[in-house]
Write a structure and sequence with these properties.
With about 280 residues, chain A is mostly helical. Chain A contains 13 helices and no strands. By secondary structure, chain B is α+β, with helices and mostly antiparallel strands. Classes of the chains: A mainly alpha (about 280), B alpha+beta (about 325).
């Protein structure tokens, strides 16, 4: 009897999980399907699910109208650049907070996080003016700086959490064994924190890749990443759902593939330290 | 040469003086044990010597050189931690080699020294394993290996055996003592276990609330404790303390008598009482006797002595081995 109950329960849990999974995935699937429809089919009512004339013309159209590769490269530079710069700043910061805390460390951490609670539009005007006056508008450097700044609190928080899991005695042992601070971080701390650092890196690349508010407002043409590429297919030229979908699919494909291959690492990183 | 001396060393955390002020001399080659209840500052004192904590005041001299402001790596000391603190991502070989690598030794020299240490510690077959694939005792040996390859001025042990089970603890205790006889290097060993202190030490430093209560050889502390704290801390089971009229009979505020120095008889004796709990160890029996007008006294008798709960007995202290203390708790000699 007990076995039956547990099987039924398992079935129910599986069904619920699949339902939630499909609900979350459906918009992406729908975008993907729409990208292969004609504009007329894209707005047809009732909508066609799978049985329509599949066409790849949207992709050709999108590629001929705008330079996908340029935006792609901008996205790569901006997301990888901001994440690496963030890590270089965050590793020593998180080390200090985790292993040499003061009375105010917790306050500093909370204060950093609190900057994420503010709506970004609140500081858009001053940021825009600063960027304009320092010539950073529509440059990759400017976008790298702004994305580093907005993601830095998350990077430091994540690394701080991972570093806290590392017993301080191991670092003290390294000190007793004659390691300098730099060697302690390179030979002992970093290898032990690799899963944590890797998942921080991946998560922040994804966040930076998808960041739309600052990238749209602070770039125009030269430095515009894929978010701007998608946006160019919305309102200004009327709503071309099929082309918009094709552009979106092209924009999220690289990060989706990266996420797929690093899935294990991401999950391990996110649950790092939960089980010894 | 690993002589270490502490001069007026103190450590203050915020407003709390963990160690008010300590003077201590450790001569080269000595096995010194810091013992005391938890929170007495013994680990802090060790960490001050190691350089893992900064002293608030005072001076630390290692091998004749002032070491107070030197970083841990420059003090020429090795430390074995309670949690072993092995590098989990490195093999046993790399763990043991790490201090040599940091010192910039040649690969050939490193290989030879690691092989030597592994042989001494019976780790040769485990050199390519990761720490997580080892048992507790093996991990402890790796930690010791990592400490000995550098040939330090002195070894510092911070409660190294408390994570091991009882049987293994006795074995490792013996191994560390043997290692000390082989290497003849100064060792400072921190423990809260007075049995470890008694069995291993050349010199015991008894600490209480950041102060040194007494320094001496194990038998000195056992036979001539300076005060009530040392008398109660050293020896197992604990010394019996009696104050009031029975103590006044011996011209003391408090008298102390060890369980092994109380003679038990069923017919006659100084103090009368009834047997409460009897703990049979086989060779010995510890009797907790409710003595009339005194309280509970522990007596150690031979395992053959047949008594049971509620039996009336008489206790007689061995007057030669009676410890007398004044009202401040200091020994009267």
């Amino acid at each position: 009897m007990a076995r039956n109950v547990s099987t039924r329960r398992k079935l129910a849990v599986t069904a619920v999980a699949w339902t939630i999974g499909i609900l979350i995935f459906f918009p992406i699937l729908w975008t993907f399907l729409t990208s292969f429809k004609t504009e007329a089919q894209a707005i047809a009512s009732p909508p066609a699910f799978l049985f329509f004339d599949w066409t790849t013309e949207n992709y050709f159209e999108v590629q001929s109208r705008s330079n996908y590769f340029k935006h792609f490269m901008n996205s790569v530079v901006v997301s990888f650049g901001s994440t690496l710069l963030g890590l270089i700043i965050a590793i020593p910061a998180a080390w200090a907070m985790a292993f040499a805390p003061t009375k105010r460390t917790k306050d500093v951490l909370m204060w950093m996080l609190s900057t994420k609670m503010m709506p970004p539009v609140g500081v858009l005007v001053p940021m825009y003016l600063m960027f304009r006056n320092s010539g950073l508008l529509d440059t990759r450097t400017g976008l790298v700086i702004v994305l580093t700044l907005i993601n830095l609190p998350i990077i430091i928080w994540m690394l701080y959490t991972y570093f806290k899991e590392i017993p301080g005695e191991i670092l003290e042992a390294a000190r007793m064994d004659g390691a300098s601070l730099a060697k302690e971080i390179i030979y002992v701390l970093t290898p032990m924190a690799i899963p944590g650092i890797a998942s921080t890196l991946l998560l922040n690349i994804i966040l930076a890749w998808n960041e739309a508010f600052w990238t749209l407002n602070l770039s125009a043409a030269k430095a515009a990443p894929l978010t701007a590429f998608i946006a160019s297919y919305s309102s200004p030229e009327g709503l071309f759902y099929a082309k918009l979908s094709a552009a979106s699919t092209m924009a999220i494909a690289p990060i989706l593939i990266l996420g797929w291959f690093s899935q294990k690492q991401l999950v391990r990183g996110l649950t790092f330290g939960a089980v010894k | 040469m690993g002589s270490i001396s502490l001069k007026n060393v103190s450590k203050v955390f915020g407003a709390h003086a963990v160690i008010p002020s300590i003077d201590l001399d450790i001569t080269d080659g000595e096995f010194v044990v810091f013992v005391g209840p938890s929170g007495c500052g013994k680990s802090t004192l060790l960490r001050l010597i190691a350089g893992l904590e900064d002293v608030s005041d005072g001076e630390i001299v290692i091998d004749g050189k002032k070491a107070t402001d030197l970083p841990p790596a420059k003090r020429g000391l090795s430390m074995v931690f309670q949690s072993y603190a092995l590098y989990p991502h490195m093999s046993v070989r790399s763990n043991i080699a790490f201090p040599l690598k940091m010192a910039g030794e040649d690969k050939a020299v490193i290989d030879k020294k690691v092989a030597d240490a592994a042989r001494v510690l019976n780790l040769t077959d485990y050199l390519d394993r990761k720490p997580r694939q080892l048992s507790g005792g093996q991990r402890q040996r790796v930690a010791i290996g990592r400490a000995i390859v550098r040939q330090p001025e002195a070894f510092l042990f911070d409660e190294p055996l408390s994570n091991l089970d009882a049987a293994l603890r006795v074995n490792m205790r013996l191994e560390i003592s043997q290692l000390h006889q082989q290497l003849k290097t100064t060792m400072i060993y921190v423990t809260h276990d007075q049995v470890e202190a008694m069995t291993m030490a050349d010199k015991i430093v008894v600490l209480n609330r950041g102060r040194i209560e007494q320094v001496g050889s194990p038998l000195e502390l056992y036979h001539k404790p300076d005060n009530l704290f040392v008398a109660g801390f050293i020896g197992s089971p604990k010394m019996n303390f009696i104050s009031g009229a029975p103590a006044a009979a011996y011209q003391a505020h408090t008298i102390g008598i060890r369980p092994e120095h109380l003679a038990l008889s069923k017919e006659q004796g100084t103090w009368r009482g009834t047997v409460g709990v009897a703990e049979h160890l086989g060779s010995d029996t510890f009797l907790h006797v409710n003595a009339d007008g005194i309280g509970t006294l522990t007596a150690r008798v031979s395992g053959d002595f047949a008594v049971s709960h509620g039996d009336p007995v008489f206790l007689t202290p061995d007057v030669q081995r009676l410890h007398k203390f004044d009202e401040k708790g200091l020994a009267i000699r």
